[in-house]
Amino acid sequence: MLAAVLFFARLGARALWSSEFRWAEIAREMELTGNYFWPTINGRLYYDKPLLSYWMVLGTTWLTGSLNEAAARIPCAIAGLLSVTLLMMLARRLYDRRIAPLAGFILATSMSFVFFSRHASADVDTIAGELAALLLFVSYREEPDGWWVAALWLIMAVTSLTKGLLGFVLPITVIGSYSCLCEGWKELYARISTGSFGQRLGWLIARNRWFFNWRSVPAIALAGLVYAVPFAISFIRMRSDAGLYMVYRENILRFFEPFDHRGPVYLYVYVIFALMAPWSRPRSMPRFWSPMAMCCGAR
To answer: How many Å apart are CA 299 and CA 259, to the nearest integer?
Structure first.
């Protein structure tokens, strides 16, 4: 209830600003042209993000009656509320009933999370999808080679269609790290520092059976198909590989040849403290540093 008030109250009261115009204008031009596989701003191609986040904006117009400020922001507000719920469920499974509401309260009152839950973008959509993937893994970690891995890969595919391949990369990294470290650093070091290469590799495979099992093969293939379909339709209809090039540019090229970000590749290693304010704030951080300033200045 607290999160719902924070995220939804007067959601359409202020005008669009900054990057919000991208989501609203691209959705508006999709509606005008009837081409939902070719994102444009003022008629010029703008394929910097996958298509799902724009479609979600269009999908909320049935709630608002038209494509307006509230419609542009409702998907993120819903994703923010879903993220708080998923985090509470995850904390309850990993810890207990006391920790769950505390975790949800901290997330729901973190300044930047509130900001982005009330802001038209794809960031909170990505967070919700990644939390859903982690919750599914934690729920079935005792049966790592079950068919639930298909749902895991599908969730990651859909999440990646909102902002980029981070929907795959982050859950895989977190789940893989958890699987190797669930018995502690000492156990991990002992397993990978002693024995033959085959024994070490066998232990890593055994710890990551959620990935190294035969059901992962069709699951990964299905996830790849779900992720590729919008790009394939866009290519067939427009005879352009702009969507696929976007994937390469946004997820690989930008880390070696930055084209729209001033910050270094390790930016979020220290920016995370600003994003989690007021619950995390190192003493060295200037007082004028705010999530809003970070959002505008780091891009």
So the answer is: 10
- 269 in the same domain as 130: no
Q: Mark whether 127 and 274 lie in a shared domain.
A: no
Backbone dihedral angles phi then psi of residue 44, each to the nearest 5 degrees = -100, 140
CB 146 within 8 Å of CB 215: yes
92 & 186 share domain: yes
d(CA 28, CA 39): 10
Residue 291 clears pLDDT 60, i.e. is over it: no
Instruction: Give the DSSP H or E segment for 227.
Output: helix 216-238
Per-residue pLDDT tens digits for 176-196? 999 999 899 999 999 999 889
Same domain, 219 and 195: yes
Tens-digit pLDDT profile for residues 213-253: 999 999 999 999 999 999 999 999 999 988 888 888 877 77
Residues 268 and 249 in one domain: no
AA identity, residue 293: A
| pTM for the full predicted model | 0.89
What separation in angstroms does the CA of 117 have from each of 4, 55, 88, 203, 216? 10, 17, 17, 41, 33
Q: What is the pLDDT of residues 86-111, one digit of tens each?
A: 999 999 999 999 999 999 999 999 99
Q: Under 8 Å CB-to-CB from 5, ≥6 apart: which residues?
A: none
